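Bug #77: duplicate submission created two jobs. Keeping one. Sequence:
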Amino acid sequence: MNPWTVPNALTLVRFGIGFWMITTAIIQPQELVSLQWVALALASVAFATDWLDGKIARWFPSQESRLGRYIDPPADKLAVSAYMLFLLVLGAAGTMVEYICFLIIFVREFGMLIWRWFGGADLIPVNRWGKYKTGFQMGALLLYGMLPAFPYPAFYGLAL
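Kept job's structure:
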């Protein structure tokens, strides 16, 4: 199978966005306020490419690849974790409960990544519930990233 496919290119976009967010959060934390809408837009693109690369690979079997099955999960984890790090450094989490929620998600994401890479993929295969969890998680993070524009209690409850 050809590793140079559209889904793999979309996965590489997710890696690039994730690395940009991490680098920006660590190297330029003073710039995060001015870049929060850029980060939200990039996170939206990254999360959309997660959905799109899977659809393309299923709709067009010639676009499926072994490499894609290997690099897609870490790209998803990186996109989610990098945006969470960006939001945390930005100061989006204002309470201890929010920090704990971010920490639980972060530990779970990387725990599953390490587990799958080192032999657990056969024990815990990717399934529909994991896809729902990822979609819900990405949607909640995007809502959470919009909180500065919509600081209303009802909107806040949706994001949590």
